[in-house]
Structures are given as structure tokens and as C-alpha cells.
Amino acid sequence: MIEYRNLRVAVLGGGSVGSQVTALLLEHADELAARAGAGLEVVGVAVRDIDAPRDTDIPKELLTTDAESLIVGADIVIELIGGLEPARTWILKALHSGADVITANKALLAHHGAELFEEAAQVGAQLYYEAAVAGAIPIIRPLRDSLAGDRVERILGIVNGTTNYILDRMDATGDSFDTALAEATRLGFAEADPTADIEGYDAAQKAALLASLAFHTRVPLDAVHREGITSVTAEQVVAARKAGYVVKLLAICERVLAADGSTEGVSARVHPALVPLTHPLAAVHGGNNAVFVEAEAAGSLMFYGAGAGGIETASAVLGDVVSAARRHVIGGPGVAESTHANLPILPIARVMTRYQITLTVVDEPGVLATIAAVFSDHHVSVEAVNQTVGAVVEGVPSATLITVTHEATDESLAATVAALAENSVVREVVSVLRVEGL
What does the entry list as the binding residues for NADPH (predicted)? Predict the structure, then answer.
């Protein structure tokens, strides 16, 4: 029988993910030791309340409210408490002590990642975070390692299960946003306070991490353009389906050109978008996540699966635990964060995209020519126009125009929409959605 050296593992957090991670570490100790080349000894689990109910049974003797004592002397620290503090302080303490750290805390990394990665590099430790983006889906390691020799051009991600469930239900059943959100809450897809999800904050944090990793450039959270899904209506979703699209909340990270046309930069944005039914992301249903990567040599790749859940996220955490253990067995410093490219962060105005614009207009001769002139004045080309006759409003017949543009800068398209809203033949700009994935 092979005897392995033991590595001391401290778990911070005994919630849904923390309790599952601990249970799996204990249950599969022999298998994990064989894979890692070292025994993984759980020295304790730091919790707020030792007597609180948990998803899985953790031996009572492992539970403690003294997190700092656990960190001291640990070889591997797993942070699963969430939030900014005390998580930041505890991770810095763990790194400073020479421990490798594994975290699922995307908010902390989005706000303080530069500081934490710098500390890890200074002391030769490693900070792992596979579970911070898209739950069980392996995407951090493929971007960091498998595609390190390639040039990633663009990432389209469905990285929030709550919003995907809501939009998918609206598409499948015709529910309003409020009804779909209520059902998501009842089923446990949405938190009691769903703001972070439905307003796009969660997805924006993940977009910042993905963009930083894919483009070897630190992308701060405040540089990520963010829009939520609260304004998406059932009518928009139905119209999208008729036109051959579905509505998805996308995290989009891509290389773009600056205004001079030659300087390359990076853009990261989160917003609802129309995705063609023929695109693989259109088939991502329920609370699932998917990340679609476009690379120069590898081509198009999609990573799909459960984006949340205690045991699913625990899978990603345990993968990082094995990697950390192997590093300890082999020896040597951790691999520093790759930010050598240092590309400029460009605003969404520089992004090339398409719009679908729905207008209510007066129904009289010359309206289409007037609308076309507005597009032309802003150097935006129209791909398709669909017109339907509407009701009579204040004695004046009206019509609905649904216009899909060709690709143009977001700045030009936004200016076009603003000009349309002020035009006398336009009664209302009913909706504006970007079209992605073509």
C-alpha cells in the first residue's frame, strides 16, 4: 500500500458548497490521495454557527468558529464564505502564510483580484478559482492552460442560471418577467433578493474575470458595461422567436479596435441580446450555463453544464484541490497571473454590433423614407424591415416597424436610436435589443 504525505486542508464556510466539499473530501479521501499524490487531511471547517442545519453531515469535531486558527499551518485553504470581508483578509492571511488558496468568490476576485494575485505571486503561492465562473463547467483552466498558446478573439457566455431560467421560461410559456421570476424564486433558482442576478451584477463580475484571463489584461469590474433583464417584456420574447431568435443575457468579452482603427483593445459587457436559433447558445435551457469561445487557431468551442448548485460547484473546487496538492508534491512556486498583454480597456461605444429596433410610427406616405434617412445620416445600414399596421392613436393611423441593422459601432447605433426617438414620425421607440452570435 502506498503511503502519502499529508497536506492539511482548511475549509472556510459550511454552507451549501462548503458542506458538499467537506463531505466529498472525507468520503473520497483515498481516491483523491491517489490522484493528487498526497493525503488530504481536513483539519477543520470554519462556520458562523456550529449548530446550524447543513446540507450534509459534517463531523462536529471539525466545526469551529475560529477561522484564523485554521488558516495558520494549513497547506491548502478553501474559501467558500462569499462576500468581500472577511474573505479578503483571510485569503491574504492564507497566502502570506504560504498556503495555496481555492475560492469560488467571484465578487471578491472582481473587486480585489489584482491585490490577491499580486500577493500570491510575491510569496510563490497559487490562487485557484475554477468554481468562481459557471459553477461545474471547466472554463478557467481551459482559458489559462489549454488555450494559452492560442489567441482568443471573443467569448459569449450565459453565466447566470437565474436569468437564463427566467428568459427561457418566458420563451417557452409566454410568461411575463414578473411571473417567470416568481416561479424561479419558488423553485430555488432565484434568491429572496434577486438583484445581483436580474440586474446583471453577477454576470458582470464573471465577465471581468473571463476577459482578464482570456486577453492577459486586468479588466476592472467598473469597466464592464452592465444591463439587466428587468425591462425585457413577453412581447419582445415572442417577437424574437417569430424572427428566429431567443433572448439571452450574455456576458461578452472581445478584442476591439480603438477609434484610430489600428490600436487593439478589450471590451467586456453584459446585456440582454438576441441570439439566432441556429447558434449553440440558443439551446441552453433552464438554469444551465454555457461559455462559447472563439479562438484564432482552435476555432469555436463551447463549454456547457450546471452553472450553480452545491455539489456541482464542489466538483470544480475539488478539481482545484487536486491541482493544488499536486503542486505541493512537485514543489516550486505557483504560476503567476498572466497580464503581460496590458491591452487598453475600451468602452462599449467602440464595439461593433447590430441592433433590432422596434418603433411605433405614424402610418402615412413617406414614413419609411424618413426613417431610412435617419439611419443613413448616422452611417448605419439596414438589413431588414418588417412593418405591421397598428391601431389608430388620437385619430392618426399607426404602424409598427421592426428594423434589424447591419453591423456598426454601438456609438453610431445608440445615436441613431436617440435621433429616431426625437423624429416627428416616431410615436415610440418600443424596444432596442442588440443582436449577437451571427
Answer: 106
Q: Would you mind telling me the total number of residues written for the chain in this entry?
A: 438
- What would the mean pLDDT of 164-188 be, rounded to a whole number? 97
Cell of 240: 424574437
Nearest to 273 by CA among 230, 224, 232: 232
H or E, element range at 402: strand 396-405
Question: For the whole prediction, is pTM greater than 0.85?
Answer: yes
- 299-306 and 352-362 strand pairing: unpaired
By CB neighbour count within 10 A (0-12 exposed, 13-18 middle, 19+ buried), where does 316 fall? Answer: buried
pLDDT at 335 over 80: no
Q: Is 206 among the catalytic positions? A: yes
Kindly report the number of other CB atoms within 10 A of residue 67's CB atom.
Answer: 25
* Residue 155 main-chain phi, psi, to 5 deg: -130, 130
Q: How far apart are CA 321 and CA 126, in angstroms?
A: 11
Q: Is 275 annotated to bind ligand? A: no
- First-last CA distance in the chain: 56
The residues, any chain, with a CB within 8 Å of residue 312's CB and separated by 6 or more, are 135, 136, 305, 306
Q: Is 124 helix (H, G, I), strand (E, B) or coil?
A: coil
18 is in an annotated binding site: yes
Q: Which of 93, 206, 242, 248 is catalytic?
A: 206
Enumerate domains of the chain plus CATH numbers.
Answer: 7-136+311-330 (3.40.50.720), 140-306 (3.30.360.10), 351-435 (3.30.70.260)
Adjacent-strand bridge partners of 79: 12, 103
Residue 2 pLDDT exceeds 70: no
